[in-house]
Specification:
Elements: H1 3-30, E1 56-63, E2 68-74, E3 82-87, E4 101-105, E5 123-126, E6 143-147, E7 154-158, E8 162-163, E9 169-176, E10 179-180, E11 186-187, E12 190-197, E13 200-207, E14 214-215, E15 220-223, E16 231-239, E17 246-255, E18 266-274, E19 277-282, E20 289-293, E21 300-312, E22 315-318, E23 325-330, E24 333-338, E25 340-341, E26 346-348, E27 355-359, E28 366-372, E29 377-383, E30 386-389, E31 396-404, E32 407-415
């Protein structure tokens, strides 16, 4: 065997070793090929929101001998934080109904556009039994939104529009990495969180160094209070730098705040309603009970609800109402149906163009009613997990009441 042959063979073996090392590094940075990322749509699981902190947990006790109805509720300060938007990327019906978008751009300040066919961009990262997979980059469930290192330019995964309030907070989980791969080379990944407000994109987070690596070790949180009373959208932006693949999972916007989230807004009391009509206004903010004498009223059903009042300057705003309770008077009998709020029922998107989804969760045998701001019934039907289409109605504020044997829930719905 001559020296020339041995030299050529060794060069060939060295080339194979370098190639294998490079492939391993690519797999490490990507951990899946594009066939394993199912590009589809993503469902917005909750964009329904309340404009103001509201009372809740309304109950009634009716004494048929005295015809006195004793109402009691929990005050606004015990309200649970409101989830404004929540997305875990587990289902496939989102871009058309949820308001999310996926776009690309040549630069961070360049015009965004829908990605063309075959463009590598944001897509589903799905758990798989294949050797190369995204399993260790998904925070919960079976899916996250992922993008491979082979993507070029800028890629925008953008939420629906919401009205921000003081105290609102964005949180999400990400698998972000910058640093050395198995081939010994250092790869830097550029990742941003941008907020669109008043037609301008603002950078709220920028990862571009090894020190910022966060491979699902801790949740990322961003305070949105600076955008109080403004309509905003949030974008997760991946910049193609031949860095590492990245995932985003379990996105949530939540907060509980006064109307407009202004520091000047003051709690001004409660309004009590009977059968949809105002019964009384309570100015004592410490009072969470009310007695209603119905001795002079005819036999029948009487339904109660309570809302909170918030005052800012000369303006007074009213919160969403509590759950409703119904008292039955008549025939020497007394009953009070204490209907609890259906906490897991969701309605989205909100605002919308006349099409929205009612998600009943675990509740069955429910009905829903759509009314306008004057209380007129626009439409009603038995409820399933369904898409409701009321296209053609005028823009404005409406109410959707979902009722089941387990309770009720009322949504304020804005139709654009």
């Amino acid at each position: 065997m001559n020296l020339t042959f041995i030299f050529k063979r060794n060069l060939w073996l060295l080339a194979i070793c370098l190639l294998v090392s490079n492939v391993n590094a690519q797999n490490q940075r990507l951990r899946a090929n594009l066939e394993e990322i199912k590009y589809s749509t993503v469902k917005t699981t909750n964009v329904a929101k309340s404009d103001a902190k509201a009372p809740h947990g309304l109950t009634a006790n009716y004494n048929s001998e005295t015809n006195i109805v004793d109402l009691a509720w929990k005050d606004v300060n015990t309200e649970k934080p409101t989830v404004i938007l929540e997305e875990g990327f587990e289902t496939d019906d989102f871009l058309t109904t949820g308001g999310w978008t996926i776009k690309t751009s040549a630069g961070i300040d360049s015009e965004q556009s829908i990605p063309g066919e075959g463009v590598v961009t944001w897509a589903f990262a799905v758990k798989s039994t294949e050797p190369k997979n995204w399993n260790d980059r998904i925070h919960s469930g079976e899916r996250a939104m992922g993008i491979p290192y082979s993507a070029t330019q800028f890629h925008w995964l953008t939420t629906p529009e919401i009205e921000a309030k003081n105290g609102y907070k964005l949180s999400f989980w990400t698998w972000y990495n910058s640093g050395k791969a198995d081939d010994g080379k250092t790869y830097i990944t550029n990742f941003r969180v941008m907020v669109l407000s008043e037609d301008s994109w603002n950078e709220e987070l920028f990862y571009n160094s090894e020190a910022q690596s966060n491979t699902l070790e801790s949740i990322v949180e961003i305070d949105l209070s600076k955008y109080a009373d403004k309509n905003i959208q949030i974008a997760f932006v991946y910049e193609g730098t031949d860095g590492w693949g990245l995932t985003v999972d379990d996105v949530k916007i939540e907060g509980s705040a006064k109307k407009g989230n202004s520091k000047d807004a003051e709690f001004a009391g409660y309004k009590v309603y009977r059968n949809g009509e105002e019964l009384t206004t309570i100015s004592d903010v410490a009072t969470t009970t009310y007695q209603d004498d119905i001795s002079s009223l005819e036999d029948g059903d009487y339904t109660y609800k309570v809302s909170a009042l918030w005052k800012e300057g000369e303006n007074t705003e009213e919160s969403d109402p509590t759950n409703e309770v119904t008292v039955t008077k008549g025939g020497g009998t007394a009953s009070a149906i204490n209907t609890q709020e259906l906490e897991n029922v969701k309605l989205y998107p909100n605002p919308n163009m006349g099409t929205f989804t009612i998600d009943l969760g675990e509740y069955n045998n429910a009905e829903w009613t759509l009314t306008n701001a004057n209380g007129q019934i626009i439409k009603s039907a038995k409820a399933t997990n369904q898409i409701v289409n009321v296209n053609g109605i005028e823009s404005g504020l409406y109410f959707v009441k979902v009722t089941s044997t387990k309770g009720t829930k009322v949504f304020k719905v804005v139709v654009k």
